[in-house]
């Protein structure tokens, strides 16, 4: 990760197909497009690769989460359980619909703790949204059991773990709905883009219409289509879909490269007794997009993180001090800094953030470092990097 490191002829070829006829929109203009339907083609290939009945492309991963929630009928006042460690998109998408994000602790998988989910369920809870962070997954079997028992919708955010599997199934295909991002820094990129995945016919139809102003897409003239319900514009363009198509066809190649690089780094760090690794749930196979490990305490992790920088080891993240991924630095959420008025229901629903502590999440995130695995490294570069990492960690222990 990211796929853009290997942008090349295949991506250019797909893009050129679109540029030759100039139809940059995914719907309509049938006569002008010389048979090129990149978004439709990408959806069909995503369905095959990710083993779902339906994939609906949208304009971003954040849009995918919003569209997935809307498709399942989640809206004003509904509570959606999400993890404390994720990307800001999780609560943005929930709040866009007037729903309430209920943040819960993560465990040593670096994803949502099923026990914390159980404790957070109320009469308003509608959905549970695990986020498969840094290439590995939440315990989906435990979460599925909870959702079944309490009649909740399970929505997987697999934006950072495309290519990973759980008990033989691709992430994103296991919950009622799955979301993925094709933004510029993800394992397969379209520049910008995302997809909603589902086996549920109604959710798919909702996602298809909702992401295009509520258009029913019945195959008549676009101007004559009706609007069974309200929607927005979350469409992907043909240009983005074309790049995504070339990249999806390289997913296996990318995962193989990641696994190779990951394994070299992991074997080197395994020599240090103080280093432990994140837990991968039984039956899980990572996408190897990150190598995530724990150091003994916060101070050591901070020192290691800065020693990495001194040694030129880039792309390693200590999320405890990071603005994007962890509740600790989300002042804009905790203080509800909104440009426009927020409903009293959501304000009330978010009051818990003033007092709730996330001690269990802190316990893991404070000690965690996650290193991005790049696709463009040569073997010599990975080996040199492994050596530098071992040296940097050993020096601060
Ligand atoms: C990147 C990301 C998103 C949002 O994707 P965009 O395409 O950037 O909007 C959502 N969730 C997670 C976990 C992500 O990493």
From TrEMBL:
UniProt entry tagged with the keyword Glycoprotein: no
InterPro entries, A to Z: DegT/StrS_aminotransferase (IPR000653), PyrdxlP-dep_Trfase (IPR015424), PyrdxlP-dep_Trfase_major (IPR015421), PyrdxlP-dep_Trfase_small (IPR015422)
GO MF term set: pyridoxal phosphate binding; transaminase activity
Any Pfam family: DegT_DnrJ_EryC1
The keyword Zinc appears for this protein: no
Alphabetical keyword list: Aminotransferase, Pyridoxal phosphate, Transferase
BP terms from Gene Ontology: polysaccharide biosynthetic process
Gene3D superfamilies hit by this protein: Aspartate Aminotransferase, domain 1, Type I PLP-dependent aspartate aminotransferase-like (Major domain)
Recorded superkingdom: Bacteria
Protein family per UniProt: Belongs to the DegT/DnrJ/EryC1 family.
Protein name per the record: DegT/DnrJ/EryC1/StrS aminotransferase
């Amino acid at each position: 990760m990211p796929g853009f490191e290997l942008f090349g002829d295949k991506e250019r070829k797909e893009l050129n197909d679109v540029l030759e006829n100039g139809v940059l929109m995914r719907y309509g203009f049938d006569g002008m497009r010389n048979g090129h339907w990149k978004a439709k083609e990408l959806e069909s290939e995503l369905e095959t690769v990710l083993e779902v009945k339906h994939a609906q492309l949208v304009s971003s991963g954040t849009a995918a989460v919003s569209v997935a929630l809307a498709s399942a009928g989640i809206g004003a006042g509904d509570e959606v359980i999400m993890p404390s460690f994720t990307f800001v998109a999780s609560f943005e998408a929930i709040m866009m619909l007037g729903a309430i994000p209920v943040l819960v602790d993560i465990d040593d998988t670096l994803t949502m703790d099923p026990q914390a989910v159980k404790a957070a369920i109320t009469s308003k809870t509608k959905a549970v949204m695990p986020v498969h962070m840094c290439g590995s997954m939440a315990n989906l079997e435990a979460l599925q059991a909870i959702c079944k028992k309490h009649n909740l919708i399970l929505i997987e955010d697999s934006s950072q773990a495309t290519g990973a599997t759980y008990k033989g199934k691709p992430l994103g295909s296991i919950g009622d709905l799955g979301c993925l991002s094709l933004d510029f820094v993800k394992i397969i990129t379209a520049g910008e883009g995302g997809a909603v995945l589902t086996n549920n016919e109604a959710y798919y139809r909702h996602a298809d219409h909702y992401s295009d102003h509520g258009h029913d897409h019945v195959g008549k003239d676009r101007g004559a289509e009706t609007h069974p319900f309200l929607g927005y514009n979350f469409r992907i363009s043909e240009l983005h879909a074309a790049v995504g198509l070339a990249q999806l066809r390289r997913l296996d190649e990318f995962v193989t490269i990641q696994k190779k690089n990951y394994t070299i780094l992991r074997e080197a760090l395994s020599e240090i007794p103080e280093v432990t690794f994140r837990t991968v749930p039984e039956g899980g196979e990572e996408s190897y997009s990150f190598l995530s490990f724990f150091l003994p305490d916060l101070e050591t992790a901070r020192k290691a993180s800065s020693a990495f920088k001194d040694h030129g080891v880039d792309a390693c993240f200590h999320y405890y001090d990071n603005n994007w991924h962890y509740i600790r630095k989300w002042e804009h959420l905790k203080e509800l800094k909104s440009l426009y008025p927020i409903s009293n229901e959501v304000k009330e629903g978010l009051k818990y953030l003033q007092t709730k502590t996330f001690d269990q999440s802190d316990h893991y995130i404070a000690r965690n470092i996650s290193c991005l695995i790049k696709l463009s490294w040569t073997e010599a570069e990975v080996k040199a990097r492994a050596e530098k990492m071992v040296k940097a960690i050993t020096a601060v222990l």
